[in-house]
């Protein structure tokens, strides 16, 4: 089976040329870059504001802070969602202070102005004391585009932005297979991390670091270059696909059966003994079993998914800052957002959304078995608690890279072909920001 045929997509169509712009250290710490990114990237892109599952009744809200901005997303009477800048029209006090909340009116903590869920001012103190009469019913919060997709509430600060689905392009269509909107968020960690947001992006835009930094995955994920697919879309999004349930083809041990793979074989009613010395064939055998037994075992979502999608790892990275790592039964959100004031820090989020596992009250996630229940975002002081084994490994080098990128000894990256997604990311950023030096 060729790589092309295992996905049925033509690789050449997803391999645009690069110019070879130099990627030097300044962009990772200079304020002029942070300012340009705010003007041209963050205020233009679509952002994930939170989970749609948190909005049930009119007046329920989510807030999301990005940079110095804050956005509140409010559930309407008809169940739709509207987003507004989270600032009172009276004298600018921030309105909502929790990430999740709800009441019939959004009430300002300063002078008590109240807003209806559609953003209309509904009550003020001393309404007759205003020149021109009461502002109620006339004043509205500043509304921005908002939509629900994939279980998330999305917003953009760009009133002229293309609709979310246009922005997602082919990636959005492919992602529909997983039925993300039917999943539950079971893990939601967030931390203020001492590195520029792009260092984390670069990390998720390449798999070159996997053998050295994440050797523990080699028993059940094939990180060999020959077996990995890299796709780059015109919108700036990209996808990397690695075969799962298959030991890394990088090593002579690629046919030695290890525990996670043996457990997967047993779960899918295959005898691990049959795969001793031929572990590389387990993936195709499990794929066949998943097709045969999936529906009866309760994995209804496999019906809408392709063969590769039910056994492999599809890593989607959306420009500028969102990675969805799709597993057969769930997916990770790996996101970096700018710090409000310091270009050498960012806000890192690691969430896991999952389908319910039949007959179990836990799901297997990036932190191991995890209770199947909706969780709110947990803010972690960096270094005091794990953000996930693999994420910890990635972040451990991010900090060292932030230091090295200040050195006069670093004069621009030297990238192998397989890091083309890193190159394309920076070239798109250069174009969007209008900085070419
Ligand atoms: S600033 Fe909000 S009521 Fe005054
Ligand atoms: Fe990594």
From TrEMBL:
It holds the Pfam family Ring_hydroxyl_A. It comes from the Bacteria. It comes from Sphingobium xenophagum. Keywords: 2Fe-2S, Iron, Iron-sulfur, Metal-binding, Oxidoreductase. This is Phenylpropionate dioxygenase-like ring-hydroxylating dioxygenase large terminal subunit. Coiled coil: none annotated. Its cofactor is Fe cation. InterPro entries: Rieske_2Fe-2S, Rieske_2Fe-2S_sf, Ring_hydroxy_dOase_asu_C_dom, Rng_hydr_dOase-A. Residues 46-155 form the Rieske domain. CDD domains: RHO_alpha_C_MupW-like, Rieske_RO_Alpha_N.
């Amino acid at each position: 089976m060729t790589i092309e045929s295992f996905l049925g997509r033509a690789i050449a169509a997803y391999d645009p040329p690069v110019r070879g712009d130099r990627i030097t250290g300044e962009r990772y710490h200079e304020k002029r870059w942070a300012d340009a990114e705010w003007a041209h990237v963050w205020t233009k892109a679509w952002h994930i504001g939170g989970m749609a599952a948190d909005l049930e009744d009119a007046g329920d809200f989510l807030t999301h802070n990005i940079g110095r901005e804050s956005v509140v997303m409010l559930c309407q009477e008809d169940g739709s969602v509207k987003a507004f800048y989270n600032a009172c029209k009276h004298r600018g006090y921030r309105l909502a202070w929790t990430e999740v909340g709800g009441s019939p009116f959004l009430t300002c903590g300063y002078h008590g102005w109240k807003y209806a869920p559609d953003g209309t001012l509904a009550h003020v103190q001393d309404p007759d004391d205003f020149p021109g009469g009461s502002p109620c019913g006339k004043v509205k919060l500043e509304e921005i585009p908002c939509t629900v997709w994939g279980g998330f509430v999305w917003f953009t600060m760009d009133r002229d932005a293309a609709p979310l689905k246009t922005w997602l392009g082919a990636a959005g269509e492919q992602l529909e297979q997983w039925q993300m909107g039917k999943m539950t968020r079971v893990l939601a960690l967030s931390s203020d991390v001492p590195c520029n947001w792009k260092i984390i992006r670069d990390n998720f835009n390449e798999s070159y670091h996997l053998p050295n930094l994440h050797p523990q995955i080699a028993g059940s994920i094939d990180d060999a270059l020959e077996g990995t697919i890299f796709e780059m879309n015109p919108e700036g999004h990209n996808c990397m696909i690695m075969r799962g349930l298959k030991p890394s083809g990088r090593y002579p041990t690629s046919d030695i059966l290890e525990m996670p793979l043996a457990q997967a074989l047993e779960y899918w009613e295959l005898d691990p003994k049959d795969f001793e010395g031929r572990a590389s064939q387990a993936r195709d055998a499990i794929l066949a079993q998943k097709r045969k037994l999936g529906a009866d075992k309760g994995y209804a979502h496999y019906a809408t998914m392709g063969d590769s999608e039910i056994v492999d790892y599809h890593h989607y990275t959306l420009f500028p800052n969102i990675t969805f790592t799709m597993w057969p039964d769930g997916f990770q959100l790996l996101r970096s957002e700018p710090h409000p004031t310091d270009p050498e820090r960012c806000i890192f989020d690691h969430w896991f959304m999952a389908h319910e596992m039949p007959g179990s009250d836990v799901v297997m996630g990036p932190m191991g078995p995890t209770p199947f229940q909706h969780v709110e975002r947990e803010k972690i002081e960096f270094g005091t608690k794990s953000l996930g084994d693999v994420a910890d490994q990635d972040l451990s080098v991010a900090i060292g890279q932030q230091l090295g990128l200040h050195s006069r000894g670093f004069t621009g990256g030297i990238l192998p072909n397989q890091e083309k997604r890193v190159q394309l990311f920076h070239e798109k950023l250069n174009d969007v920001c209008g900085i070419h030096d």
